[in-house]
Specification:
Layout (H helix, E strand, L loop, with lengths): L11 H4 L30 H18 L13 E6 L5 H12 L3 E6 L11 H10 L4 E6 L4 H7 L4 E7 L5 H14 L9 E5 L6 H12 L3 E5 L8 H7 L8 E3 L2 H5 L4 E4 L15 H8 L3 H4 L7 E3 L12 H4 L6 H23 L1
Parallel strand pairs: 1-2, 1-3, 3-4, 5-6, 5-8, 6-7, 8-9
Helix pairs in contact: 2-13, 3-13, 6-7, 6-13
């Protein structure tokens, strides 16, 4: 098994499918990855999305091996620079890079020179001088990865910035849906994003990727947590792709194919947006009774971390329709794919 023979995607003959020649029947048709950075999914074409999905398929196969490791990024320095707390995203990026044999360094802002007043620009330049070729950055300020990309000679990968974007989460969500929906496509499917949409970088990136893939996307929550989304829907994602905005939970859930609950982000809340978490749970929490409004085989998702009993009931989160642990596992494969493609684009 080999990923691709296109020289723009690095020496896959030696890397992904060791011992497999260029004429092997399992060689997938290669696409060309044109992006030096991945700052959001809004720059990805349908061909780009398909290339990520195909590459992720290959990484899933790699992860199924007894030793899930390949030398694709041997000699590459990958630095995870996290200004916010994280478990799933930081660990999955670290595991993904190590599975590709990269040299991984983890930097937490609270334990770095940032506490002494060092700027983001100086930090990025320092990491580059120390050998980083890829920086994976999470930051509380929207746009911070874009600033980093302006001052870094390698590739910058956005692991979440403020309430703006979380591109790899959107890609792993898309991959997970495709893996479990009948027919393997999200086109024409009703996908509901439920909860704190206002503060969610996950929701914003998913709106780009899911509408591009042809899904009928509904965003639902209290009106105070949907501010600005009516205007965005009217303007269209990318100028043309519409989605539905509603506070009518029953209408949103009715006949849904996928329901993605979002965490109530109390750390980003301004006073007055919600009367209380108890009231939110009573009116908008995803319970088994409410899930029954969706299609019988509807998929349940959550980007994590979860406030069980608030935005999602524990029996729904752990139920037979839940793909939450699949999302976590697929995060490793998707991030391996993105790291691989970014490295190939710079080869």
């Amino acid at each position: 098994m080999k990923l691709a023979s296109d020289p723009a995607l690095a020496p896959a003959t030696d890397v992904i499918g060791a011992g497999v020649g260029p004429d092997d029947e399992n060689v997938a048709p290669a696409g060309r990855w044109p992006h030096r950075h991945l700052l959001d999914v809004d720059v990805l074409s349908l061909d780009d999305l398909e290339l990520v999905m195909r590459t992720t398929d290959t990484m899933v196969e790699v992860l199924a091996r007894p030793i899930p490791k390949v030398p694709a990024l041997r000699g590459w320095g990958v630095t995870n620079l996290f200004y916010e707390a994280s478990t799933r995203t930081r660990v999955s990026f670290e595991v993904a890079a190590k599975n590709l044999s990269a040299d991984v360094v983890n930097v937490t802002a609270s334990a770095s020179s940032v506490t002494k007043g060092e700027s983001l620009i100086d930090t990025v330049r320092t990491l580059e001088a120390l050998g980083a070729r890829v920086i994976v950055i999470r930051h509380a300020t929207s746009g911070a990865p874009y600033l980093a990309a302006e001052h870094f000679g390698g590739s910058v990968l956005n692991a979440g910035d403020g309430a703006h974007a979380h591109p790899t989460q959107a890609l792993l969500d898309l991959y997970t849906m495709r893996a479990h929906l009948p027919g393997g496509a999200v086109a024409g499917r009703k996908v509901v994003i439920l909860g704190d949409v206002l503060h969610s970088r996950v929701a914003r990136s998913n709106l780009w990727s899911l509408t591009a893939a042809g899904a009928h996307v509904w965003v639902c929550g209290p009106a105070t947590l949907l501010r600005g989304f009516d205007a965005w829907s009217a303007a269209g994602v990318g100028g043309s792709r519409r989605f539905t905005v509603t506070s009518d939970l029953e209408a949103a859930l009715r006949d849904a194919d996928v329901v993605m609950a979002l965490r109530i982000q109390r750390e980003r809340m301004q006073s007055g947006l919600l009367p209380s978490l108890r009231e939110y749970a009573a009116r908008f929490g995803l319970t088994r009774e409410r899930l029954a409004l969706a299609r019988p085989e509807a998929l349940v998702m959550h980007p994590g971390p979860m406030n069980e009993g608030v935005e999602i009931a524990p029996d729904v989160a752990a139920g037979s329709q839940s793909l939450i642990t699949d999302q976590v596992a697929n995060g490793v494969a998707v991030r391996m794919a993105i790291l691989y493609l970014l490295a190939g684009a710079r080869a």
